[in-house]
Amino acid sequence: MAKPRTTSCLEARISPELHAMLKRAAYLQGKTMKDFVVATVQDAARRAIGEAEIFRLTVSDQETFACALLSPPPPTPAMERAFARRRALLHTE
Fold first, then answer.
1. Does the pLDDT at position 49 exceed 90?
2. Within 10 Å of residue 39's Cβ, how many Cβ atoms?
3. Which Pfam families does its entry note (predicted)?
4. Within its chain, how far is the Cα of 1 from the centroid?
């Protein structure tokens, strides 16, 4: 029976200049080049995902959002129609 894969391979062609830079950066951090690249890519991926998924609001925007939640405006006619269609589709109420 074959063992399940626990890792995946990533290959990239880079310039000699970038290779030398990565090698130096890894050395300065006391890491192997592989460990340096993996850790750096993982950090960059986490940051990219976090930036895409987390909304950052100014204090003014936070106050506006909180007020809208606490005192929402009355539904518009289009919203009322949408709610009615939803109720009809889901057979609720």
1. yes
2. 13
3. TacA1
4. 37
